Amino acid sequence: MSDLRIDRVETVLLDVPLRRAHRFARTEMDAQPVLLVFLRTAGGITGVGEGVVPGGPWWGGESVETMQLVIERHMAPIVTGRNVDDMAGILGDITDVVAGNLFAKAAVEVALHDAQARCLDVPVHTLLGGTVRESVPVTWALGTEPAPVVLEEALGKLDAGTHHSFKLKMGAQDPAADVKRVTAIAEKLAGTAGVRVDINGRWDRLTSLTHLPALAEAGVELVEQPVPGDQIETLAEINQTLPIPVMADESLRSPRDALRLSRLGATDVYSLKSTKSGGLRPTQNIAAIAAAADIPCHAGTSIESPVGTAASLHAACAAPAVTWGSELFGPLLMQEEILTTPLHYENGELHLPDGPGLGIDLDPDALRAFARS
């Protein structure tokens, strides 16, 4: 085995252009900022992790710029000189110095997994206990555009056979108008594709109880995070009222959140994101709680590049509870490729790559092209 000691920690900021603008409830973007973290060992092995948030700090309070600062100033001194297989010790020491900053921690934690797995010449999912599946279905996310625009994109994906379910963003306009827009889309896609909605916590209790039943009647199959993340009791009330599943995202960041959601019966589906939870191991712990509570999981997205997407894919394929598919479409939304070999999407599914670590190789020319000066 090569020398496992980490002798360098490096970060790079990228801005990767998107194929189209992606609109959330509170913001939109036409390029995705990405922070890459490289851990280089004395034995010549390099592990990579990704720090990324969906559309900036409005979602999780972090940005790629804050992640870079916290990692370089506070985490790198703890990591440097340690062995990559001292993962629990390193992460524990980081938590003693940095409270919160889960997106930044996730980037370092994934890089540790990639480096250790490459040192052992095994895929990352081996470190997570092995696989229960080799691929996951991928739902395509659509923005807050008018119904004709959304329908054109959705029907194009259906005709191409690349996606069979769609998630619509809501919360950017008047609730009644928003419901009318989504109802029109759901009715057009009825019988041909699954339709889900994500409100990103933009509605309150009364708005949710008033308008969500109409979405259920229109054939929407799942509602994601209608109320703010800290309103778990309200989420429970909504979940017990609606005849369709409610999925928790902003309400679910830690294993402790997973336990509380389960006890309150606040959600029918957990949205797993290694980015928001601090890495692959906390995400595994959340999935284990979900399995014990008989709550299915969905592999969500922060619009990761292929690096973060590969990490989430390894976690999803190693977790038995991930039976509600995924939304790991980030690389397909990006205009340019940053890997020498793209991730393998086929027939509406994303397939595990071969090879050690995350199973990916970055394209140096692409990194130079998109790196911030």
UniProtKB/TrEMBL annotation:
<protein>
    <submittedName>
        <fullName>Muconate cycloisomerase</fullName>
    </submittedName>
</protein>
<dbReference type="InterPro" id="IPR029065">
    <property type="entry name" value="Enolase_C-like"/>
</dbReference>
<comment type="similarity">
    <text>Belongs to the mandelate racemase/muconate lactonizing enzyme family.</text>
</comment>
<dbReference type="InterPro" id="IPR013342">
    <property type="entry name" value="Mandelate_racemase_C"/>
</dbReference>
<dbReference type="InterPro" id="IPR013341">
    <property type="entry name" value="Mandelate_racemase_N_dom"/>
</dbReference>
<dbReference type="InterPro" id="IPR034593">
    <property type="entry name" value="DgoD-like"/>
</dbReference>
<dbReference type="Pfam" id="PF02746">
    <property type="entry name" value="MR_MLE_N"/>
</dbReference>
<dbReference type="InterPro" id="IPR029017">
    <property type="entry name" value="Enolase-like_N"/>
</dbReference>
<dbReference type="GO" id="GO:0030145">
    <property type="term" value="F:manganese ion binding"/>
</dbReference>
<keyword id="KW-0413">Isomerase</keyword>
<keyword id="KW-0058">Aromatic hydrocarbons catabolism</keyword>
<dbReference type="InterPro" id="IPR036849">
    <property type="entry name" value="Enolase-like_C_sf"/>
</dbReference>
<dbReference type="InterPro" id="IPR018110">
    <property type="entry name" value="Mandel_Rmase/mucon_lact_enz_CS"/>
</dbReference>
<dbReference type="GO" id="GO:0009063">
    <property type="term" value="P:amino acid catabolic process"/>
</dbReference>
<keyword id="KW-0464">Manganese</keyword>
<dbReference type="InterPro" id="IPR013370">
    <property type="entry name" value="Chloromuconate_cycloisomerase"/>
</dbReference>
<dbReference type="Pfam" id="PF13378">
    <property type="entry name" value="MR_MLE_C"/>
</dbReference>
<dbReference type="GO" id="GO:0018850">
    <property type="term" value="F:chloromuconate cycloisomerase activity"/>
</dbReference>
<feature type="domain" description="Mandelate racemase/muconate lactonizing enzyme C-terminal">
    <location>
        <begin position="147"/>
        <end position="245"/>
    </location>
</feature>
<keyword id="KW-0479">Metal-binding</keyword>
<dbReference type="GO" id="GO:0018849">
    <property type="term" value="F:muconate cycloisomerase activity"/>
</dbReference>
